[in-house]
């Protein structure tokens, strides 16, 4: 898969987050704007910026299946950066229409990526895995919790979205 990504994105690279000053600065910024609620940025979340995927320090210890599913998600972000360009993508992702609470573009971009996460997880683990309420709540919680700055508070709409993706996967 990484070879396919490199063919699609010749400048693609994977960089450990702890080696990036920018990623460490983002971590501290997120701690500040979420009043300490987003503590897992450096340890739990892979992050795509432009053609670079920044990975947590435990990346190589994660299972091949977990890395595959994650890279399917991140590849969507690579394509979004390609389509929109880094400056516009960053502006929309971070600020439009609001940095927190109603971050419509962030939610849009993440919905596309999490759709791929759901598809990939179903391929790897089976449809029952993504039907599990715990998995579903985990995905929906990304949108409604501190991890992405409470980007979208409308849980019912997110549940309908998830169930629509699930119907596609199950078909």
Kindly describe this structure.
By secondary structure, the chain is mainly alpha-helical. It has one domain. It contains 9 helices and 3 strands; from the N terminus they run αβααββαααααα. It has a 3-stranded mixed sheet, covered by helices on one side. Helix 6 (104-125) runs parallel beside helix 9 (155-170). 28% of the residues are buried.
Question: Layout of SSEs?
Answer:
Elements: H1 2-8, E1 13-16, H2 21-33, H3 41-44, E2 47-49, E3 52-55, H4 64-84, H5 86-95, H6 104-125, H7 127-131, H8 133-144, H9 155-170
Parallel strand pairs: 1-3
Antiparallel strand pairs: 2-3
Helix pairs in contact: 4-5, 4-6, 5-6, 6-9, 8-9
Strand order, largest beta sheet: 1-3-2
Helix content: 55-70%
User: What is the helix tally?
Assistant: 9
Unreliable runs, pLDDT <50, ≥5 residues?
none
Distance between the termini: 25 Å
* Mean of residue pLDDT values: 97
Order of helices and strands, N to C? HEHHEEHHHHHH
Name the structural class.
Answer: mainly alpha
Domain count: the total is 1
Shape estimate: globular
Percent strand equals 5-15%
- Largest beta-sheet details: 3 strands, mixed
**What Rg do the Cα atoms give?**
16 Å
What brief labels describe this structure?
about 170 residues, 3-stranded mixed beta sheet, 9 helices, globular
What's a quick, concise take on this entry?
This protein is 64% helix and 6% strand. The chain is mainly alpha-helical.
């Amino acid at each position: 898969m990484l070879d396919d990504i490199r063919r699609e994105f010749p400048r693609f690279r994977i960089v450990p987050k702890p080696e990036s000053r920018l990623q460490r600065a983002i971590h501290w910024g997120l701690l500040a704007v979420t009043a300490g609620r987003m503590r897992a940025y450096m340890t739990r979340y892979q992050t795509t910026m432009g053609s670079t995927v920044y990975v947590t320090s435990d990346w190589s210890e994660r299972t091949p299946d977990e890395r595959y599913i994650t890279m399917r998600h991140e590849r969507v972000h690579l394509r979004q950066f390609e389509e929109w360009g880094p400056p516009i993508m960053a502006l929309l992702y971070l600020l439009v229409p609001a940095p927190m609470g109603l971050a419509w573009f962030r939610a849009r971009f993440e919905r596309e990526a999490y759709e791929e996460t759901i598809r990939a997880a179903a391929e790897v683990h089976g449809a029952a895995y993504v039907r599990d309420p715990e998995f579903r709540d985990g995905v929906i919680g990304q949108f409604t919790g501190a991890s992405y700055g409470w980007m979208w508070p409308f849980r019912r709409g997110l549940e309908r979205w998830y169930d629509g993706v699930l119907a596609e996967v199950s078909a």
